[in-house]
Structure formats: structure tokens, C-alpha cells
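Figure S4 source data
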Amino acid sequence: GVDAEIVRLERQYAELFHILSGNQIDFDYGEEDIMSRHGKVEKGILYVGSCAYRKVLVAGMDTMRASTLALLAEFAAQGGEVIFAGEVPGFVDVLPSDKVRELSDKCRKVPFDEEAVARAAESGLEVRIASADPKVRKNLFVQSFAVEGGRMVMLLNADRENDYNNVFLDLGSGACVELWDARSGRVTRPDYQVSEGRVSLTMDLEKGGERIFLIREEGQSAEEGRKLPEAKAFVGREAVELPDVFSYRLSEPNICVLDMVSVTDEKGNTIPRMEVLKADRALRDILDIPYRGGEMLQPWYQVKYKGGNTKLLSTISMEYDVEIAQRPGDLRLVVEDLTHIRKALVNGTQIPLISLGKWIDICFDELEIPAQALKEGRNTVTIVMDYYSTCGIEAAYLLGDFGVRIEEDKPVIATLLEKLSIGDITGQGLPFYSGSVIYELEGTAAGQKGCRTSVKAPGFGGALVKLHGEGDEVIAFPPYQADVADLRSIEVVLTRRNTFGPLHQCPKEAPAYGPGNFMTEGHGWSDSYMLYPQGLLEKPFIRRG
């Protein structure tokens, strides 16, 4: 197991971080090697590179470098404040020594508890926080540092579950405040107050949210040199109702995943219809070679250094079935590892093994399926492939202008819907789709020209939301809100999860993912497709003004 002394030190390290951060005490960690090379003391100030410090807190250490001890001793001798919290280090350069204790006797010593450490470490210049919620102070972390003409203050709501509203911040001395948006680069002026030379404001801070303020000094007000726009509030504007149904566009062709396969090898061994990765393991049992997995050598390494493609193990025929309710016009087949494919057939009609281009990744190639090869009802895609130890049986994909519905745990190709409703798109003909969905707003109340629109979209499934108007804006983090002029459309950029899976893992969400998540069994397996809800799951809140 882990050494108990290491556990103790790691626990103290974490506790100290939360003591200081939870009391809004700004600090830097002192790395002893950097301090030995870049540290110096001048006029009672400890300099490490270009950073200057008037206090040093020693806590959670068992051993100290001799170079650090000498630097702290000089710092204390020149009037700098060295604080020892809890147990004083009993080793110097990993050898037993009383020298650190001798230094600590000349310095301030406090017990290792929150109240004592916080009171000893604070400078009196900390940002002060007031809120009706007692958790706010513990979860709002602050960093502050001097810059030319003022101070930067950065705040983080470390609580990933809760929003905090009406939080009062006393930001200290200053003349005016600017709000800097690190994502867009915009600088705006929040609603703040100045009283007796101190600036303060009240704000809402979303879960996981951050704010960056520049507090400018007297005589350097932003208004003197430039006029900053006001930081717009969402509330107080005119609400606009969105429709329930939208015209829409897809950024990519729709996708139908073919991940169930039956396999026959050149000796007549057959593997009945099953999920592709399980079929691959069944084939490897027949061929008596190891399974693919997280511990295997990567195929490129096997090819380059281990002769991985020198021995042909078998030539296999893989059959994928798909039901077509309405025959689409243009249909393409995506295959992996085209290099080792001998031929591909759709309902017995051979299709050219000429790549029309790559799809998503360089390992995937698009092949054209002639329209006459398709039929309504059951269709069979057959792929004949040379199988080496570096190969694998993988899913195939159909691309085109079609819809997909799931019937009895099987995909059925049908007509693509003309309009999308608010809600999960996986049940609206797009179960495996993973590009972008653009919801059109022109012709709706929200799509009127000549006005600025604020959009709050907390209920979406995907990676992010884009607002298209006079310029584009991105919504990806709480509070899931952005402003745009002349709003024309809302685009939800999806993730690739519903295309590449795991598609049968039950439950569908896991703390982490590896090869094992794609090969679940028993209660961890579902014959049904376990899909993530995607698209605009709830109506965005729209306000104008």
C-alpha cells in the first residue's frame, strides 16, 4: 500500500490549499530548486525571479534544502515574516537536523488549523466576500496581483454543482473596474460602486464560472481614454418566444452505423451475427492469436518493428444487414482499413474500391454505392478482407441524405424529417449523427434583423452552441449565455459519441472510458443502442434589447 507518511503529507498539502483558497488568500508555491537558482533577499523582501514576497508560510514539510534554509534565514534577518504552521521540518537535505527548528524559534509559529493559518497568512488586502450562502466563501477562489496601472483579480467558483447569486465583493482600493472576458477578449464595464476609495460590486456566479477584473487606480479610469460597453444583464430585456418546430440544416451527411456482423473465414468457419468487436474476438479465438486491447502493441508499431503484416492469417467475409424503408438517392459506404479490403458488395453488386475521400479520420474511406444496388427491404453489405494480426473487424457506416429510425434494436433507413422539434434528435431520424445541427430562426420572432439578442441555452446535448448573426458567438460553459446582433440561427455542435460509441454499454455513462467499455457483458451490455441525447433538448431563453 501507499506509505502512511506520504498520505499524511499529501493530505496536509490539500488541506493547506483549501485553507488558503477558501479564505481568499492569494499565494504561490515555493519550488525549492527554482528558489535556489532565482531567489534573493533585498531590503526585507524575498524575490523569486520577478515576483516579490513579504511573507513565507512553511507547512507540510519534513525536510528542507539547505539553500532554502539559508534564504529564509536571511529573509527573517532582514525583517521578512516567516510563519511555521504545524510540525517544523526535522531534516535538512534529508539528514536529521535541528537547524530549521532553530530558525522557527526566531519566527512565528502557529498550529496547523484553518483559523490560525488563515489569520497568520492574510495580508489585509484580500478580496472580501459577503453572501447569504455560507458555502460561497469556501468555494470562491481568488487570485490577485499587481499590474501596470492597477490590479488584476481573478475569481473562480470551484463548486461544479451550484450557482451563487447576489454575491457581494469588496475588491479593495481603486477608481474603476473593468470586466475581462478571457474567451472572447472583450472588455466591458460591470455595475460597480466606489465608496471611500474602495470598489465593490454584487454579481451572480454560475457553477464552475470565473471572472477576471482589472481594478484601475485613481486617475486612470477607463472612461478617460475609451468608452467601454456596459456588461449586459440577461434579465430586464424583452422576452421572445421560440417556436416548437424548426427548419434545419445538417453540416454533414447523416450516418447509419452498421455494428452488427456475421463472419465467415476461408476455411468455412462461421461467426453468427454479433457486435463487431465481439466478432473480432471470436475470430481471434479461431485463429489462436491474442485479443486486441489496451495493453497491445499499436498496429503501426507492430508493422514498423515487429513484422506485423508479414503473415496473412485468413481472408474473411463480413456481412452487415440494414433495412431500407425508403430508398435514398445518394448513399456512400465508409470502411476502415481499405488497404486490406479485397472487395465490397451491396446486395451482390460489387462496388468500386476507389476512395472518394477520407471521413472524420484518415483511417476511414468513403466508397460510392450505385443507386441501382439498393432496394427497399433487407439489404446486405459484404466486405471481403485479408486479415493480419494488426487488423480488426470494425463497424461500417452509411452516409447520405436519409433519416434513421431504430426498430427492434436495428437501424432502418427512412426519409429525413423536414423539420426538427425541440428535444432529443436521436428519436427524430438522427440517432447516430454527430456533425452539427443548425436550427434556422429567420422568419421567427427571434430572427428579426436590426436588434441585439441575448440567448441563454442551458439545455443542449453536444459540445457547444454557436449563435450565428452579425458575427458568431459561442456558448460552451455556464451560464450558457451570449449576445449577438441580427440572430439568424442556432447551431449545436455535437460530439462523436453516438457514432463511435460505446453504443451498447449499460449504463451509458461511466467515470472513465477505455477498451473495456466497448466490450461489456451481462448487465453491462444492452442490445439496444445506448445513445446520448443530442441537439436543443430545451427551448433556449431569448431576450432582446
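Figure S5 source data
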Amino acid sequence: MVILGINMYHPDSSACIVVDGKLVAAVEEERFNRIKHYSGFPSESIKFCLNKAGIKIENVDYIAIPRKPQARVLNKIFYGIRIPKMTFKRVQAWQKTFNVKEKLSQIFEIPSEKIKAKIIKVEHHLAHLSSSFLISPFDKAFLYSHDALGDFASTMWGIGEGNKIKVFEDIAFPHSLGFYYTAITQYLGFLKFGDEYKVMGLASYGNEFLDVFNDILQIKDYKFELNLSYFLHHKKLIDLNLEGEPKIDILFSEYLEKKLGKRREKDEPIEKKHENIAFSLQRRLEEVVFHLLNSLYKKYNLDTKNICMSGGVSYNCVLNGKIFDNTEFDNVYIIPAPGDAGLCIGSAFYVWNCYLNNPRDFIMEHAYYGPDYSEKEIEDEILKRKDEIILRGFKIEKVEDEDLLCKVTAQKVSEGKIVGFFHGRMEFGPRALGARSIICDPRKKEMKDILNKRIKNREPFRPFAPSILEENTAEYFEKSHPSPFMLFAYQVKKDKQDKIPAVTHVDGTGRLQTVSKKTNPLYWKVIKEFENITGIPCVLNTSFNESEPIVNKPEEAINCFLRTKMDTLVIGNFIIS
């Protein structure tokens, strides 16, 4: 049984392939066309997934799409009458989902009637819940999804047990934690789609809570509401931008500026008041989410301490890291792409487990489901660029022995070198997790500034992340719950903060990746060798890119290496330094 999951004409378009209940491949379209958060049709992603599985499009049994036009139709009609342009745009999006077979027939150059797959449409947030639970390690869990908007809802919760999901309730447009966070992000001068994570980093520099945020985002029993006086998204078109890089209109109103003062323009300096606004934004989000989770735990008299979380707000690693101390839940599972990229996986497994009623027998323990490249492909690319590489003053070494490769890599990191690390299958989701990473020495406090100056060009208030050996987590962090996908921020123990200052944020936290010997043995071995040299079982890890999506192909890795001031590139069994 072959199921193709497609998130299309929506930000972070992606595809996955599930064969007999096992995930074989998953990837975002941005990794191929190099357009961040691409929102069109994931043609190249579909081609890759089918090719990886060795399957032709004619042999796909089901196509799962995470969009259901019938969901909340009255709400859609109400706002459609008020905002006709919104109706037009959404009808365009719906029409494109109806024509998926025609689109596939064009891509694969075959008649559409040869594509026999049955199309199943799964409601947006149900696909989110499915993505978090059906591939989790839990037989039973509370399910919670929160984002900006999908099928006219922003939040949904329910219970999962075995291969069944029961939805309890949802919160519909216009009330949305995602729009709340995005609106204040825009007010603070960060206008690109997906900039919310920057403000999460900025929040750690604030120290004064502004009471107005209690008015902006209000608790209503076991739910929340936005005070719509501060917002515009319910009054005008939210441009879906069905193709290309997503863009979003300004969401906050003049009333917000009246209360908080004039908005920050993107090139203006960041002042203390901006830090306090970011702090207040983050703290109020945490208060509301923890209130909801605790209220819902009591309301439904839950008999499980497991929770599966999804939706774009689940990228908020600061919030995620505080769940253990502020809610009734002890165990949390979040997939590596809890945002909209993960919808392809959620819709596909919904079809396999819920629609077709198959038992669950797959756990997503790692994120390495993207493209990989053979040693020959890597060597051919290096040979093609050999003269250019040598002319730039680099030497090329081939290291056949894996242990030696890891030792040399660790040695270079310990010497303060910036190392690009390209190995195996690319990560699914936005985090570099040791397959397409840049790694550095976490002991050097100045490494953060060096990285920004030489490669990343990031705002100085944004932290870099530690990759730590899973078995050493409790030695360095106040929490030891696994964080394989870099989606939790924990407090670094006070006596360890001066040992890893480059990955300890101003508030004493680290957004860590716990590295398992089972799921990424080579990366684990590099960190272990670094520990053997330095006594420190972690490295600084950031994504292998420079103002672009994470590199995918060997060619892109070499290009990024040569145009930046990276010291070393470890790619396959080659070291260029």
C-alpha cells in the first residue's frame, strides 16, 4: 500500500511517501527550488519521494491532502461575505486541490487517467494532530495543535489511543495564537514570513511585563480570545500567495501602536522597550497555553501524562521546555516539522491508520528522510571544482576510515575551526541536526560573534544551539527529556554555563539537540571524539546555509563553503581545509 502525502499551495509545501505504514521519504520543496517557505506545488519533492521508494506515480494507491474545504463552512461564508477577496483567493486554493491529478499528469508526462490513486482530504488541524500522535512512541496521549490558521481554525485538541483520534474541540478564526505572535513580531520590525523565532530569542533580553498583553490575549475559561481591537486580520484579506515565497499583510492595528507606541521600523535600533515587548509577548503566550493545557487536563479528566503537540506555535522551544514544570504532562512528543511542512506526514498517516484502520507500527525517531548522495556523486562534484578549490588555497583529503574522519573533524572543531558537516540523508524540518550542519567549539564565548561575522549575519541577540550526547544531557541541563529535533530549550546548569558559553543564551537556556548513537552514529561519534579531546560532550550546531534554505546537494555545500569564511568542509569521506 502506497500513500503520497502532499502539502501544497500553502507555506512550507512538502511531500512524503508512506509504504505499508512506514515513512520512506519526506522533504520540503524549498530544499530544491531554494525559496524559503515555498508555498506552491511540491513537484520536486514528490519526484524525490517516489524515486526514493522506487515507485511510479501510477502505482500510488492514495494521495493525502491536508485541506478540507467543507470544514467550518459557515465561518468561511460569514467572512467571505465581509471580505470578498478572501473568498476569491480561497476558492483559487481549493480549485488547485481538486486538480491535483492533472498537475501530476503534467509533471510526469502521463495521461491523468493513468493516475489511479484515490484522493483523501484531511482537515488541516486533524492532519497536525495525526502528525504528532500516529508516529509517536505513545499508545495513548492528549493531542494539541496550535498555529495561525488552517481550514479556518487555529487550535484543536483531542485524544489519541491506538490508531484512533477523537477530536474534542477547536478554536476558530479570528482567534489565533499564531496571528497574535506574528502581529507583535511585525510590530517589532521583523516582517518576513517565519520571523517569529527571532522575537523568541529577543524576549530573553526583556525583564518587564507589560500589563496590556493581558488585554491583547485574554483567557476565557479553558479557551482564549484575541481582543480584536489590536488586530486587522479579521477585516482584510490575508494573502495566501499560492506560489513562491509566502508573504503576509500587516496584522496589527493603529490601536496597538496607540497602546505600545510607534512600531519599530526594520532598520531602527532595538531598544529596551522592544526587548520588554518581546518578553511580554512570550510570557503571555506561555501563561495562556499552560492555562489551556491544565484546564483541558481537568476538564476531560485525562488519565495520561503524555502529550503530542503540533502546529507552527510548537516551534516555540522556550514554551515547550517549560511544559514539564508548568503542566500536568510528563512526556512530550513533537515531530521535527510540527508546522505546515509536517502536514504531508500527518495526512498520509491519517489515511493509513485511521481511514484504512491499520495498526500503528512506525515511530519517527529521527529526521533523516531527505535526499542523500553517494560517495561517487560527492567525489565527482569535488573533482569538477578541484582547480577552483585549490586555487582558493584549500587542500583536499580523502579519509576512508570513519573513525579517523570523526577524530580529524573533532580535532578541527577543538582548534576553533568553523566546520561544515555534510553527511547522509538531509533532515526533514527546519533544523539542521548533524546531517547538514555547521559545527563549532561551544567553549569559546566569542564563537557566536565569529560565526555571525564570517557566515551567518544573524542578529546578535539570537542564540546558537548545542548538540549534546543524549547520555550526557542531565549532566549539563536541568531537564533530560530527549530533544532529538531541537524543539526544547532547557536551563543549562549553573556550574556548566561557563563551560559552554557559546551555546548558553542570555537567560541561561540552551535550545538543545540530544544526539543518539542509534539514530545518527556518525555525528554522535564526532561529538564523542570532541569529548575525548576537550572533556565537553557537545558542540555548537547551526544550519549549513547562508541566508538561504539549508543546503541539499554537494554542489550547494561547496558553494556555501567557498563564498563564506568557513575553515573546513567535511563532506562524505572528504575533508577540504
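The chain has a mean pLDDT of 95. The two ends are 47 Å apart (CA to CA).
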